[in-house]
Amino acid sequence: MNTSSFLQLLFLTISLASVLSSDSHQHFIHCLTRFSPNPNSISQVIYTPQNLSYDSVLKFSIHNLRFASSATPKPLVIVTPRQESQVQTVIYCAKKHDIRMRIRGGGHDYEGLSYATKAPFVLLDMKYFSAVSVDHLAATAWVQSGATLGELYYSIAQKSDTLAFPGGIWCTVGVTGLISGGGYGTLRRKYGLAADNVMDARLIDANGRILDRKSMGEDLFWAIRGGGASSFGVILSWKVKLVKVPRIVTGFRVYRTLEQNGTELVHKWQTIAPRLPKEAELRLLINVIWTNKTNGQIKTPQDAEPISGADEKTLRFEFVGSFLGPAEEFVLLMKEKFPELGVVKEDCLEVTYIQMALIFSLFKAQDSPTLLLNRTSYTIPFKAKSSFVNKPIPIERLEGIWKHLLKQRPTMTNLMLTSYGGRMEEISESAIPFPHRAGTLYMMYMRVTTMGQSTNPADANAMEWIRSLYEYVAPFTANQSAYLNYNDLDLGVNNEYGPTSYEQASAWGKKYFKKNFDRLVRVKSVVDPSNFFRHEQSIPPARP
Ligand SMILES: Cc1cc2nc3c(=O)[nH]c(=O)nc-3n(C[C@H](O)[C@H](O)[C@H](O)COP(=O)(O)OP(=O)(O)OC[C@H]3O[C@@H](n4cnc5c(N)ncnc54)[C@H](O)[C@@H]3O)c2cc1C
After folding, report:
1. Is the CB of residue 105 below 6 angstroms from any atom belonging to ligand 1?
2. Of these residues, 115, 486, 497, 502, which one is catalytic?
3. What is the rounded CA–CA span in Å between residue 187 and residue 171?
């Protein structure tokens, strides 16, 4: 074929594709209004690229700016339902017109899976499903699927200062993404994960049926609590169990640098933190910072550039955590269990539980809890990975990790270690799909900032850097395990078109779920055999 006929063919293919895409797009919108019980109200919650608000609605809940560039595929249509019947209509029409669907809650997905994919798709943005109803006498709450943790925590605090939900730490995270992947927070060592504290759920399945725990059955109810709900249906709401917390709790922070015995402290932390009483949780944030080698002055992790020629890079170890009790008791506990850290009362702050939620979302204890209702937050483009560590990393290997970190400039990266043990190891590996229980010392999370464009050479370097760090720690992690809520497409993806084999999907499925992956595949094969609810790492149904 000569160049001119090749170009003609290419042009024809592109034109045909755009006609088809605009056709299916039009048919899809027509379907939404035609089959909605209330065509007027659904037309008010549909946004096409022609709509002036389309961009702002799309970007409102994008928390990883790596997926906010012009190169990121955009939805044909965004629907922000306000009624359950509108969700049913979207499912019906997406199936009828063979359009993929992405479901978004808080929008924190690490790989942008809730709002971007290559194939033509509709974005179902559940942000208006955000009502919370707390029954403080029964210590339960119903929370709609599009609510954020901040909205849930705020509503609980309005009713009681001694009840809480063991959810995540950052208030803009959506309840559904969090719960449906497990969801750890400051109460994990006392009460387990968010998903361990769910009593009921309402969802819409691939046939448009609204099901609750009783009608969906225990298999599906098991799968959506940690197995990733977006493989199984659209969650409408969760009934969660609230747990007891003291009226006054303690938050604390202690900073040490490499020069202040940092490596030995981290080495000890690995075995001490998972064995503390359940009331205490001690995490570690590790950042690259500048320090002045002449006067020893240190900068913050937010200072990207050196100020003087005497500045050199070092690491700052932030020991941060909380205790369900008074500061005095916590200081005594630390003196007994971890005297080397030298925690004193001045490192601690006694607050109410809701004030602690504010502090860990980077507000101040005195700030109004209404700040927790704000759904937008500080965002950057990034790539992250996670592993579960089940044997202490020796000093030499820790030093190797430090060398790796020090190759990056301050602000570009961080490493976060979250201690396990306590209630986390009492719950069986198969109770819910999240399997990383007994034997896990801590979860390691690593992040690198990118430029937000895959074509930028700096991004290729950042990707290479994080992949090699992940490989470097692999010998100390349980079979390169990973946390679903820090999803990572490097582990593998489903075929874009056509089925994916069990073996192929095991590459990521077994890392997230271990043996529970098999049960998830069985549940998927029963409840969604045609694989309507799919994304790059969704659970594939077994092939007949
Ligand atoms: C800044 C930040 C802080 C974090 N802190 C924590 C933490 O403390 N603890 C922790 O465990 N994790 C934490 N995470 C990870 C977080 O739990 C996951 O990213 C989680 O998936 C986010 O949920 P979301 O609803 O905000 O995200 P989304 O991107 O909206 O959704 C995530 C997944 O859930 C699916 N989903 C959303 N709504 C529905 C629905 N109604 N029905 C079916 N499927 C749905 C989406 O399709 C997608 O697959 C944090 C993430 C970030 C970015």
Report:
1. yes
2. 486
3. 15
Reduced to 3 states (helix: H, G, I; strand: E, B; else coil), residue 243 is strand
Question: Going from the N-terminus, what domains does the chain have, and what CATH number goes with each?
Answer: 27-125 (3.30.43.10), 132-244 (3.30.465.10), 249-350+380-484 (3.40.462.20)
Rounded to the nearest angstrom, the distance between the alpha carbon of 195 and the centre of ligand 1 is 13
pLDDT of residue 453: 65
Residue 113 beta carbon below 6 angstroms from any ligand 1 atom: yes
Model confidence band, residue 3 (pLDDT cutoffs 50, 70, 90): very low
Which is more confidently placed, 489 or 12? Answer: 489
Q: What pLDDT is recorded for position 58? A: 97
336, 340, 342, 343: CA torsion to nearest 10: -60
Active site residue 470: no
CA of residue 114 to ligand 1 center, whole Å: 9
Whether 234 and 228 have beta carbons less than 8 Å apart is answered as no
510 CB within 6 A, ligand 1 = no
The closest residue, in CA terms, to atom 44 on ligand 1 is: 230
Neighbours of 527 (CB within 10 A): 23
